[in-house]
Amino acid sequence: MKTLYLIRHAKSDWTTQEEDFQRPLNERGHSDAPRMARHLKSEGYGIEKFVSSPAKRALTTCRYFAETYSNPEIKKVEDLYEPLLEDFSTVLSSLREPLHSVAVFSHNPTISQYASKLLETLMEFPTCAVAVIESTAVQWSAFEEGEITLKAFFTPKDI
């Protein structure tokens, strides 16, 4: 059994003049990300590995989760910024460690599209939303071929 946490970055600051890649979180984003991380942990959800888009807003969101889980090691993957659907599959297939759970931080619209594809239902990710998705697969490379189940879906408004 493998557990994938798909997490869209928290709310970003559109008032800044930064390029898209460097856009930071806004005040609400800085509040929602640690609150969501604490919520997941308090509900008993365990995350062993953190993989993130290197874009500032996604990486900052990821860092809040990594701090909450006392695991500062974050793998940055360029292809999770402006990703294609197959980039998520590639990221999962690249996991070689004996991990049971991984959190992947990325962007819309593709994170919503990937979750929709996996779950065969329409999924819309507001900022800082988390989908907890399980697969019966034994290896990450076979995650998509396993029996896929949505175990939970959280948004900042829900918690």
Automatic annotation (TrEMBL):
CDD domains named in the record: HP_PGM_like
Taxonomic superkingdom: Bacteria
InterPro entries: His_Pase_superF_clade-1, His_PPase_superfam
Matching SUPFAM superfamilies: Phosphoglycerate mutase-like
Pfam family, one: His_Phos_1
Residues spanning the membrane: none
Positions bound to substrate: R57
Record-linked PANTHER family: OS09G0287300 PROTEIN
Record's protein name: Histidine phosphatase family protein
Species of the source: Planobacterium oryzisoli
Lineage of the organism: Bacteria, Pseudomonadati, Bacteroidota, Flavobacteriia, Flavobacteriales
